[in-house]
Amino acid sequence: MNTTKEINRRRTFAIISHPDAGKTTLTEKFLLFGGAIQTAGAVKSNKIKKHATSDFMEIERQRGISVATSVMTFEYKDFLINLLDTPGHKDFAEDTYRTLTAVDSVVLVIDSVNGVEEQTRRLMEVCRMRNTPVIVFINKMDRDGKNRFDLLEEIEKELKIQLHPMTWPINSGKDFKGVYNLDSKSLLLFSANTKANEEDSIVIKDLHDAVLNEKIGEKDADTLREDVELIDGVYGKLNDEDYLSGNIAPVFFGSAINNFGVKELLDTFIKIAPEPLDRETSKRVVRADENKLSGFIFKIHANLDPRHRDRIAFMRVCSGRFERNKYYHHVRLDKDFRFSNPYSFLARSKDIIEDAYPGDVIGLFDTGNFKIGDTLTEGEDFYFTGIPSFSPEIFKELVNKDPMKTKQLEKGITQLTDEGVAQLFTQFGGNKKIIGCVGELQFEVIQYRLLHEYGAAAEFRVLPFYKACWLTSNDEKKLEEFLRFKQQNSAEDKDGNPVYLAQSEWFLNTEITNNPAIEFHFTSEIHK
Ligand code: G4P
User: Any idea where the domains of the chain sit in the sequence?
Assistant: First the structure.
């Protein structure tokens, strides 16, 4: 197989959104276009419902199913597309952030009625940190949404990114008539549940052509002419480089549920979205077309059957060709491993694969050797960088309820935090084990899994912290002094990095002001 050709045809991306904006619906339409699923509704049943209560078994059941949809691979017009799923539930936001380290670009879905929402803001922050190219899909145009100019302004301001409209809507809600493609100068007329084939679009070379009036009525035709003139004047033509560097986000309007505007999005996506990119490591930049294999683990999924403790580690292939049964070097453990049953994830099922190329995500069976951020190579020692940990938002002390099971508890919490379910901090001096999570749900997950998978009974005691900051300083002595003085609020993370646990924003700001020799970081890269 021609490796360069295989790399060039791959596109690895994620669809991200605030819950309910339409991510699952859009995913499903993409898969339909790719022929990976036959009927609508196939993806829907697989997602972790955002309304999931704290009914734990239900969450576990859905989590179990979600392994199959973690990566959806499909072909579209000679391109091989790897779509990485991200959990919709906000309590699993960290999972989403880590998944974003494994993609080369994202499609951001925004609800035209609700505009920019909380999760959108945070997800976009992660994209900005990594200069990830973003395409925006403004969904639900069939509903009465915000004024489109206001919406663009809101997105630009709130998400701190410049936009570039690729299509332009004609009204919204019950008056929604379709979109005008500013690039191909064609009009796509809206009808509910459309197949949105090319035949449906009408090429209008000159917007003053009377055919426009005929199709959408004089009033709307005039408005469209004015809008397009304005947009052309402001935005001009999209420069692909600006998109690829993460500075400008092309924007599409549509309605995912009606399969409207989706094909336009997908066609532009394959045209402009980046192929597997070169990646930074602790030593050097690794090019996708290098001969030797390298890749990193960005997600670990536990087997939910307590009789089988094995897990699936998801690896993004960054360079070279991965081969089944070949030995690879696990950099952190300095040990070689081979994998006899590596999985690829086609939309419907898991398949054992013989090989994989840069951009692909494969599932490796793991009996406890991997943690998030681990790197595999053909011998060279480096780590992929840019896999951050964010400060948790809720902190609780882990309390052992059964001293006879201390060992099991230790093992359980180590493995669960390796998987990235939560972050573990150990208080300086007191040795208190502090678990930090993004949402309450994870504490339930941990408690349940400790008991059922490791036989360890534990409970949690609420701690009054609000944020964890990683500390660095050029002045070792000052840092040591600070940690000693603030023992109650000081801890180390799993890798031994010092952390300050702040009770409130006020305390944090005070410490930042009072300790100019110390740097307070809000994210920590697992490997620097
Ligand atoms: P998510 O994954 O981002 O959480 O969103 P999801 O696709 O589940 O969509 C959220 C809701 O919005 C769903 O309705 C979905 O049918 C609806 N939706 C998606 N795209 C459009 C669109 O273009 N127009 C309109 N009007 N609605 C859209 P639901 O009632 O929550 O779920 P369901 O009963 O349809 O399953």
Answer: 3-272, 279-377, 388-525
DSSP H or E run through 235 = helix 218-235
- Sign of the Cα torsion 66, 67, 68, 74 reads positive
Domain 3-272 has CATH 3.40.50.300: yes
**Class (C level, CATH) for 279-377:** alpha beta
What number of other Cβ atoms are within 10 A of residue 57's Cβ?
8
Is 1 strand, coil or helix?
coil
Mean pLDDT of 330-336: 96
Instruction: Say yes or no: do domains 3-272 and 279-377 share a fold.
Output: yes
Q: Is the pLDDT of residue 55 over 50?
A: no
Residue 199 has pLDDT above 60, yes or no: no
Nearest CA to ligand 1 atom 14: 20
CA of 258 to the centre of ligand 1 (A): 10
Query: Which atom of ligand 1 is closest in space to residue 255's alpha carbon?
Result: 23
**CB of residue 24 inside a 6 A radius of ligand 1:** yes
Residue 141 has pLDDT above 80, yes or no: yes
Residue 211: exposure state from Cβ atoms within 10 A (0-12, 13-18, ≥19): middle
With beta carbons less than 8 A apart as the criterion, state whether 155 and 115 touch. yes
CA distance 193 to 191: 6
Calculate how far, in angstroms, residue 436's C-alpha sits from the geometric centre of ligand 1: 32
Q: Write the DSSP assignment of 184-229 as a string of letters.
A: TTEEEE--TT----GGGEEE-SSTTSHHHHHHH-HHHHHHHHHHHH
* pLDDT tens string 238-277: 999 999 999 999 999 999 999 999 999 999 999 999 999 9
The answer to whether 263 touches 166, Cβ cutoff 8 Å, is: no
Residue 393 Cα to ligand 1 midpoint, Å, equals: 28
Ligand 1 mean position, distance from CA 331 (Å): 43
Q: What is the pLDDT of residue 49?
A: 45
Query: Does the CB atom of residue 172 touch ligand 1 within 6 A?
Result: no
Q: Is 96 near ligand 1, meaning CB less than 6 Å away?
A: no
So what's the pLDDT on residue 266? 95
pTM over the 0.70 mark: yes
Q: What is the mean pLDDT of residues 298-319?
A: 79
Using one digit for the tens of pLDDT, what is the confidence trace for 409-423? 999 999 888 888 889
In the chain, % of residues over pLDDT 90: 59
Three-state secondary structure readout of 311-334: EEEEEEEEECCEECCCEEEECCCC
What is the dotted CATH code of the domain comprising 388-525?
A: 3.30.70.3280
Q: Is residue 103 within 8 Å of residue 132, measured between CB atoms?
A: yes
Determine contact, residues 13/109, Cβ cutoff 8 Å: no
